[in-house]
Specification:
99 residues; mainly alpha; 434 Repressor (Amino-terminal Domain); two-stranded antiparallel sheet; 2 strands; 48% helix
């Protein structure tokens, strides 16, 4: 059965968030794919919303970006704020704002 419009929209949203996080980290699709153990064309397809991403792939992408998988699903632009580590090699989620 082909995907519904809702499913395609969700895939597109996920792909846009992945692309945003990847660009913020300064990684190319190829480097992200390598770090995640995925193929470069697969990462491109995910970013374009063409792929139905598995839970395993979500974890691999999150690990490669050094973020929690929930960042891909959080609402609002501030929810995917990530900061480079001290050496600039890895990313971490931004610390929570003091209350």
């Amino acid at each position: 059965m082909p995907p519904t419009k809702v499913q395609l929209g969700r895939r597109a949203e996920f792909g846009a968030r992945l692309q945003e996080l990847r660009l913020r980290s300064g990684l190319t699709q190829e480097l992200l794919a390598h770090e995640a153990g995925l193929h470069r064309t697969y990462v491109g397809g995910v970013e374009r919303g063409e792929r139905n991403v598995s839970l395993d792939a979500i974890w691999r992408l999150a690990d490669a970006l050094a973020v929690r998988p929930g960042v891909f699903f959080a609402l609002g632009p501030e929810s995917c704020d990530v900061q480079p580590s001290v050496d600039g090699a890895a990313l971490t989620e931004a610390p929570p704002e003091p209350v």
